[in-house]
Amino acid sequence: MKTASSAQPLPGDFAIWVFIFAELLVFGVLFSAYALSRMSNAGLFDASQATLNRSYGLVNTLTLVTSSYFVARATRAIRHGRSAACGRWLGGALALGALFLAVKLLEFHDDFSRGITLSTNLFYMFYLSLTFFHFMHVVLGMVILGFVAYRTYAGAYDANRYTGVETGASYWHMVDLVWIILFALIYVLH
Amino acid sequence: MKYSSQKVAMPYFIAALALFFGQIVFGLIAGLQYLDGTFLFPDLPFNVTRMSHTNLLIVWLLMAFMGAAYYIVPEEAQTELYSPKLALVTFWVFLAAAALTLAGYLFVPYSQLAAMTGDAILPTMGRGYLEQPLPTKIGIVLVALSLLFNVTMTLIKGRKTSLNLILIGSLWGLALLFLPAFYFPDDTVKASYGWWWIVHGWVEGDWELILGALLGFILIKMTGVDREIVEKWLYIIIAMTLMTGIIGIGHHYYYIGAPAYWIWLGSIFSALEPIPFLLLVAFAFKMLLQRRREHPNKAAMLWALATPIVAFLGAGLWGFMITLAPVQYYTHGTNFTAAHGHLAFFGAYAMVSLSIISYAMPLLRGREANSPSAQRWEMTGFWIMVFSMIVITLALTGAGIVTAFLQRSGDNPLGFMQVQDKERVFFWIREFAGLGFFSGLLVYLGSFFISGEYDYASEAKQALSA
Fold first, then answer.
1. With B421 labelled, which of A134, A139, B54, B193 sits at a CA distance of 20 to 30 A?
2. Residue B367 has what DSSP assignment?
């Protein structure tokens, strides 16, 4: 019988989990505020949401989910001591992260050329600030992954020492998870 | 103390405590002026008392931060300070500038002081905390540049630890964030923006990083926990501070003519600002539980552990209570804000300054820790001051709530002075608690004059026989 003590310990460093939970709390509050203000402005929110280009959102969702898969493969590779493969998977994840940023910038450019600002209406205020806030998290996640990739190439990890890779991977999965909720909430649900 | 040049921290710490004493005296006078508007008038009008109280606070905290930097940076970099002489010259320049400015406040009418010091050429005077005449403001920049030059050169020639990088980086931030003090446009909204970039940027951003670095240093030294663990926590705390604090500035932009989206952004992000303080509490106690040694300086440990708790209460909880826009609509500028200001400034920045002073002063005086009796005095002072400050906070909160109900809401709101009259009981409680704080401060300062050092042999013997 499985007991609590035989459960797997948290992957990665304990401190990153404190950070991840704090981040989820922050996004949780942001999503709740969005949901609450939508309740009294459903018409406005639906009309504004219809103007968003869902293709951008969908491409970015697939990009981030794939990058999360790459990061998971990187973790598996290092657990088997294959640090070169780990480095390649991390490099791939970073490239996808960059693709996400590029697509998002393109979308922001479209939004701004349509004259949309934080002051346009409540929906766009949430849309712009939530996606920008998440954008900055992708940047931070890439900094962390970049650091882990650099350390991987420098030979800091092997089959017995890979906490750093798991730590970076855990944070990246959080960035991905938040986007999936954000995409569903802001682009799709109406 | 590992490097002789760390000794330059001592005059900074002593001056900080002297200015702290001055701050409390002006606080007591201001409290009395709330009860009797004519007290000391016209020799010391209320606006001058208040200005002296708040400016002394800023100056003594800056003194303590600088002393802490001169103490910590060489030890972390494992090398002597680049120029101890420059640090000492800077100290005297800063102290003289502070004394002259205070004399200017006390002996020259403010408008005349402004006319005398070139405010017409480049207007900078008049905003809260930034009342200093132009020459003083320029002096602050020069003093900051001298400190930054000195510690950065020390860092370049020595070991580069994350903690030192965080500390020196946040000192650079402190200096850069002061620059909007020279930007005072006629447009009141823009003037408010510039003012809050400094005040909010300092106390709800950059200074939190300084607080983290000072606390991190004390905890590394006192608990013997690996610096990697401490530094990891610091990075997380910094990330959360910036993530919530930068956009959290929006809570100063409500209803002042700034765009309406600040009501949402300010409310949401500033509501999250308690998180980094909560993380600081978790960090401090986790380090305590993982400690690998029992440091003899119990007083310093008490300060260091209490700092995040009182900071969380004052900055986190009391800040949260008034930060949401619909609440702020009623509580803006009431004594509720003063309650938050008192417990936050004391809990976060005064207490972290007293923590590093408590840790470093015995070492600067050539002993690892003070004698147990000196520590008992210090800890007694600690409890009296903390308790009194909590009473001050509660009294001001009471007054703030009364204002919100009687003056800000209802069908027949009362006038400002009528409401002030109804709040006298709170102002009396505040004044008595202020006197309590003052007595705690005297006990605390008295502990510095109890001689003797911590004697391991006799303490061990006593513990075994007990």
1. B54
2. S
On the question of a cis peptide bond just before residue A9, with omega within 30 degrees of 0, the verdict is no
| Single-letter amino acid, residue A134 | H
Q: Is B241 on the interface with A (CB under 8 A)?
A: no
Find which of B261, B262, B269, B324 to mutate to test the A interface (most A CBs within 10 Å of its CB).
B261
Domains of chain A: 52-188 (1.20.120.80)
Residues in contact with B196: Cβ distance below 8 Å, sequence separation at least 6, in sequence order = B249, B252, B253
CB B372 within 8 A of CB B380: no
Backbone angles phi, psi at B370, to 5 degrees: -75, 170
CB–CB contact B275 A22 (8 Å): yes
Q: What angle do CA B124, B129, B131 make, to 5 degrees?
A: 40
Encoding tokens for residue A47?
């009309």
Tokens standing for residue A52: 């968003």
Q: How many residues does chain B have?
A: 466
The angle at the Cα of B394, spanning B307 to B309, to the nearest 5 degrees, equals: 15
Token pair in block for residue B251 = 């809570």
Give CA–CA dist B80/B84, Å, rounded. Answer: 8
DSSP category for residue B398: H
- Give B290 to chain A, closest Cα distance, Å: 14
Whole-number Å distance between alpha carbons of A174 and A59:
18
Residue pLDDT, tens place only, B286-310: 999 999 999 999 999 999 999 999 9
Proportion of chain B in helix, strand, coil states, percent, rounded to 5 = 80, 0, 20
Mean pLDDT across chain B? 96
Spatial neighbors of A168 by CB under 8 A, at least 6 apart, are A12, A71, A90, A144, A145, A147, A148
Domain ranges across chain B: 1-150
Tokens at A98, concatenated:
């960059």
- State pLDDT tens for residues B317-361: 999 999 999 999 999 999 999 999 999 999 999 999 999 999 999
Interface confidence, given as ipTM, is 0.90
Q: Which residues pair with B453 in a beta bridge?
A: B370
